[in-house]
Specification:
By secondary structure, the chain is α+β, with helices and mostly antiparallel strands. It has one domain (about 10-200): Aminopeptidase (3-Layer(aba) Sandwich). It is built from 7 helices and 6 strands; from the N terminus they run ααββαααβαβαββ. It has helices spanning about 10-25, 35-50, 75-80, 85-95, 100-115, 140-155, 170-175, and strands spanning about 50-60, 60-70, 125-130, 160-165, 180-185, 195-200. It has a 3-stranded antiparallel β-sheet with strand order 1-2-3, sandwiched between helices. The chain has a 3-stranded antiparallel β-sheet with strand order 4-6-5. The longest helix is centred in the middle third of the chain and has 16 residues, at about 100-115. The mean pLDDT is about 85. The structure holds coenzyme A.
Length: about 200
């Protein structure tokens, strides 16, 4: 097994696989409720964005784990807007649902106001997931370290991640990796999340 090099060698079937893994592993997250079409487009946009990194691990041709991170969502949203017709089709059911629509707006507002982890860094881990059968093998640790190395090479001294209270495996994993909780934030009304900071290089 080896980590893939920086994206753009990925194709739409890879993005669809990432979407499937995201929605089955991070099923309690709001993004999963926006559907596979949207998630697939989101990972395509992350891969196309020069400020972001998408690192995945394949075994026998199938994705078994991935990590995505970058410096803010603005440039990713721009990449999504370039794909507007596909974006509208993917989001069409959610746009007709007032509850989901208001959560999308909350998400956009949060991305705009989110405080960077230091005055010089906006680096953030967006998502990490490993399929059930590949867990407990150190793969998540390898992916996390690989993202940390990319950020460090980019000149970052730290990165952050926002973790919903209900994602207990994720809290355990980030604590084990040495990330430090430093703030409580609310991405969606009435739902609390912890903001973690990981200093670089990772010890
Ligand atoms: C969070 C998540 C990615 C962590 O995956 P994981 O498989 O538990 O984590 P690791 O690959 O680092 O596994 C580490 C475990 O494997 C064991 N291990 C076995 N071989 C190992 C090796 N060669 N190197 C390191 N660890 C190894 C370790 O002892 C460790 O066990 P511990 O946690 O009891 O200390 C996974 O639980 C997941 O996909 N969760 C759902 C998605 C999610 O919540 N994502 C975060 C929100 S974006």
């Amino acid at each position: 097994m080896s980590l893939s090099e920086r994206g753009r060698v990925l194709d739409r079937s890879d993005y669809a696989e990432l979407a499937r893994i995201h929605s089955s592993c991070i099923d309690l997250g709001f993004l999963s409720s926006l559907g596979h079409g949207f998630l697939s487009l989101l990972y395509e946009a992350i891969d196309a964005d020069d400020n972001s990194h998408l690192i995945l691990e394949k075994k026998e041709g199938s994705v078994i784990g991935f990590v995505a991170g970058g410096r803010g969502m603005k440039s990713i949203y721009r990449k999504l807007l370039i794909r507007l017709p596909r974006l509208l089709i993917a989001l069409f059911p959610a746009l007709l649902n007032p509850r989901k629509l208001s959560k999308i707006i909350e998400l956009l507002c949060f991305a705009k106001k989110q405080k960077p982890v230091s005055s010089s860094s906006e680096a953030e881990l967006f998502s990490i997931a490993v399929i059930d059968s590949a867990r407990g093998s150190g793969l998540a640790q390898k992916l996390y370290n690989a993202l940390g190395e990319r950020f460090f090479r980019d000149g970052e001294s730290a990165f952050c991640m926002v973790v919903g209270e209900n994602l207990s495996q994720a809290h355990r994993f980030y604590n084990k990796m040495g990330a430090v909780p430093f703030a409580q934030v609310s991405v969606h009304k009435g739902q609390s999340s912890t903001l973690y900071r990981q200093d670089l290089p990772i010890a």
